[in-house]
User: What shape does this take?
Amino acid sequence: MSGDVHRVIGVFTHSREDRIPAMFTRLVAELASGSERWDTFLWYLQRHIESDGERHGPVSHKLLERVCGDDPRKWAEAEESAREALEARLQLWDAIAVEIEAIANTA
Assistant: This one.
């Protein structure tokens, strides 16, 4: 919602569109060996793998190329912002995992 356009697009491209297909592919592989109760969720994940991997990812890379152009500073800042977003996401999920574990240990 705020920040330089090249930084925002860098975050979107490198911390979402590049990551989701691989992340969901591993999850789909694990869930697919389970019961049929996951069928709807698997369909949802597979739809995201296809749309992010085949359409959204390539389009976001083209957009990033257009916005950053030949400016090495913009490329470095876009990458830096993406790295910061991934680190923040990791901290969030680590905190959630700690909370889940704490709840599970008190149950």
Summary: Residues 5-106 form one domain. Residues 23 and 49 are 9 Å apart (CA to CA). The chain has four helices and no strands. The helical segments are 5-17, 20-32, 39-68, 72-106.
